């Protein structure tokens, strides 16, 4: 599958969010990564369905990848589907009924995925490989942008890539946290095919040049 670059808008200038999202898409990004934090499941508070809808109303047509760092999970899912989410991922520890939550996301017409924190074991995937469209491995502890990539994620990516191959399904393997030009090559080699990058893109002056260099590194 074509590698996808998904800038995390957590590091964008929120006062100019529509323009910022337009700018990264014009700079070559594929997907908008939308971090939802509730100051309960994670120690930070960000944005909700209203902001997702505002981006759609502004004219953003690219897929919006909603990363839910909230607990409980289910109640907010229909609101995000209604607001224009394309993909909705959640942390299995934050859901009482993981299978039901996956089903709910699909019923709402979105693609569904599980997010595994750095210390969350892969066995959460055991009985859902036929039900996930995306598996997102956190390469930092969720809550903040600008943290350093945790190297043990590379082995975890290799293990999940094997599971995806064995499943015979086209499941996206997404990685989130500390992804930069300097490490994206080895992350791709370990099996990721969807790359979230917040600070590495939004803290740069030239978004297009960072995204282009990331693609070159992935292909190298
Ligand atoms: C962290 C978020 C990430 C974060 C990535 O909880 O899920 O999406 O914004 O930011 P960087 O790329 O700066 O690590
Ligand atoms: Zn995220």
UniProtKB/TrEMBL annotation:
Catalytic center residues: 35 (proton acceptor), 176 (proton donor)
Pathway annotation: Carbohydrate degradation
PROSITE patterns from the UniProt entry: RIBUL_P_3_EPIMER_1 (PS01085), RIBUL_P_3_EPIMER_2 (PS01086)
Cofactor note: Binds 1 divalent metal cation per subunit.
Binding sites annotated in the UniProt record for substrate: 8, 67, 143-146, 176-178, 198-199
Annotated GO biological process: pentose catabolic process; pentose-phosphate shunt
UniProt keywords, alphabetically: Carbohydrate metabolism, Cobalt, Isomerase, Manganese, Metal-binding, Zinc
Pfam families linked to this entry: Ribul_P_3_epim (PF00834)
Annotated Gene Ontology cellular component terms: cytoplasm
Enzyme Commission code(s) on record: 5.1.3.1
The keyword Manganese is annotated on this UniProt entry: yes
Matching InterPro entries: Aldolase_TIM, Ribul_P_3_epim, Ribul_P_3_epim-like, RibuloseP-bd_barrel
Described purpose of this protein according to its UniProt entry: Catalyzes the reversible epimerization of D-ribulose 5-phosphate to D-xylulose 5-phosphate.
NCBIfam families reported in the protein's UniProt record: PRK05581.1-4, rpe
Recorded family membership: Belongs to the ribulose-phosphate 3-epimerase family.
Protein's recorded name: Ribulose-phosphate 3-epimerase
Gene field: rpe
